Amino acid sequence: MKESLKVLKKAAEIQTQKSNDYQNPNSRIRQADYYQHGCATLLDLMYAKVLRMQSVLEAMESDPDYQPNFESLDDSCIDIINYASFFVSYSRGTMDGQDPARDFLNRLPKQNASTSV
User: Fold this and answer.
1) Between the chain's N and C termini, which has fewer beta carbons within 10 Å?
2) Within 10 Å of residue 56's Cβ, how many Cβ atoms?
3) Across 61-82, average pLDDT
4) Half-sphere exposure of 76 toward its Cβ, with a 13 Å CA cutoff?
């Protein structure tokens, strides 16, 4: 199996494990609840992850002995893969807990002037 496919498989396994913690069937919290502004929130999360990775890379460039304390660059990449899959799910309106009356930014549609009284 290609290494890139192994990475995707690992990302799917982690997504499943985390979803069992974060959207436990015994909890009222659904996945969409985490993304107040829909895909915009997910993009913010991905951007923050990229910034963290950039910081770690810069530390590694300046100090050959530097090791991240918590998340490796691999871990961060897998998180971005999963955030990207959440983005697609939300943009398609298929995320668990997503309000089908709201758009991909979690906004209610604008009222048409001809239909409002």
Assistant:
1) C
2) 19
3) 93
4) 19
Alpha-carbon distance of 29 to 25, in angstroms, equals: 9
| Nearest alpha-carbon partner for 85 in 33, 45, 28, 50 | 45
Both tokens assigned to 109? 């549609």
- CA proximity to 41, closest of 98, 102, 106, 88: 106
Give whole-number Cα distances, 20 to 59, 64, 81, in Å: 34, 37, 18
Residue 90: count of CB within 10 angstroms of its CB: 22
Output the CA torsion 69→72→75→76 (10° steps). Answer: 90
User: Contact at 8 Å (CB) between 13 and 81?
Assistant: no
The token duo for 61 is 């460039």
Is pTM beyond 0.70? Reply is: yes
Q: Which residue in 49, 51, 52 sits closest to 87, CA to CA?
A: 49
